[in-house]
Amino acid sequence: MMQKIQRFGGAMIVPVLLLAFNGIILALSTVFQNPDIVGSIATQGTFWSNIWGVIEEGGWTVFNNMELLFVIGLPISLAKKASGRAVLESFVIYMTWNTFMNAILQTWNFGVDLSDPEAIGIKSIGGVTTLDTSIIGAILLAGVAIYLHNRFYDTTLPEWLGVFSGSSFVVILGFIAALPLAFLAAWVWPPIQDGIAQLQGFMASSGTIGIGIYVFLERILIPTGLHHFIYQPFDLGPAVVQGGTISYWFEHLSEIANSTDSLRELFPGGGFQFQNVSKVFAPIGIGGAFIVTSKPENRKKTMALVIPTALTAILSGITEPFEFTFLFLAPQLFFVHALLAASMSMIMYAMGVSASIGGGFIANFSQFILPMWANHKDAIFIFLGVGLAFSVIYFFLFRWAIVRFNIKTPGREDSGEVKMYSKKDFKEKQATGGVAMSSIRESDNPNAQKAAQFLEGLGGAQNITDVTNCATRLRVSVADEGQVLEDDFFKGGGAHGIVRNGKAFQVIVGLDVPKVREFFEEIVEDENKNYEGDE
Question: What is the pLDDT of residues 366-392, one digit of tens each?
Fold first, then answer.
């Protein structure tokens, strides 16, 4: 069960990755339409103002269709076969469910008035006015569609019913399931919305302690993959404000930027975006500690490992490759990291900073620093000052712990303990007993080489039972965990680490994981075909 929850949580990152660029576009559009920042060129009605108004509307595409993105995005990762067809099925089933709800609410009295699509609790999705179930409804219906697809897509029907097989059969079953689910939603969702409204008030008023607990849980759960379930109800769902904190921030960005009131007064729920704060400042201190404590002979290798992953975290907010670099060597330091991240967030919030802090400095600059510069310099200086102070704290605390307890962080491994396998070593192994090489295995593409080595380390194609991925991890289930090689073999292929949980494995790849997965699946399919042919 835990493995399935982790896979589902990892799959939810697919649509979330689309937010970064659109968030930057919205922030820049707001800034460039503000005469106080760019001057009279931004006066309403000028060509400059009009063109940026058009660009802003385009930037809202992702946020205005978040439900559809989850309905479309989840099957990409969770469908076990024919994922493209699963996407189509999921979309049709979800829209059928919404259309059923529209008809039900107009036919029977459930205490909901659909006449005003802009009313709280009502939303137009794909042209259908329905209950605003946010990403919760999208995730649940996508889950139903994915289950039906994985279970019934290959069902064999009589030849005379062949036109209804495959995707058609899945959609038929989804149509049947959507009707009672629509009645259920029309009955139970309005009271749930009332409860969510009360929860929003409670969470927004939970203050500094609430922010600290939230950030600590989000950070500490990263190794399990369950952190997606912590932040997404806040970022994208109704846990604090309707529509999520990210969407709320951009909707009110111009209003907040032009006000001289404190950010805490203008956006008290903004502290529930502070899981991103440590992404910029922690890697500076941690990376520095790893480098200065490494052995002199390993210093260059350590820098080559730490600096790229740290820069990725600082600039883009993708911290998992960096955090997993030390997580499995020093889990006690990861616990310290979670505590420091929570403390940093609490101090910033207590000092008046409350905003949608983007994942990485690029997003921070565009959606917080730049638009807030005119009237909220104090909050910006607090953000930067507290953050850099914690970078120093991270550095000295990690450096002390590494030296005091002789923790084998990168560059401090005992001689001979870690062997880095080269491409030549890997091909020699294949030639002397590994599985036969496919054309993909022989490719010079670095992602293909990673996929080939990871497959070898996981016991070969015949040992693979399921494959998916999240933002940075290749998630694989195997038939026999005893065939999986040691962590060093995966690191030799470019992995940052590997998580082991029975027959479930997570290879920490980095941002190239979707490409690695494609090659991985191609090799598995190719070699399974060859195996069946040999039989």
Answer: 889 999 998 999 999 999 999 999 999
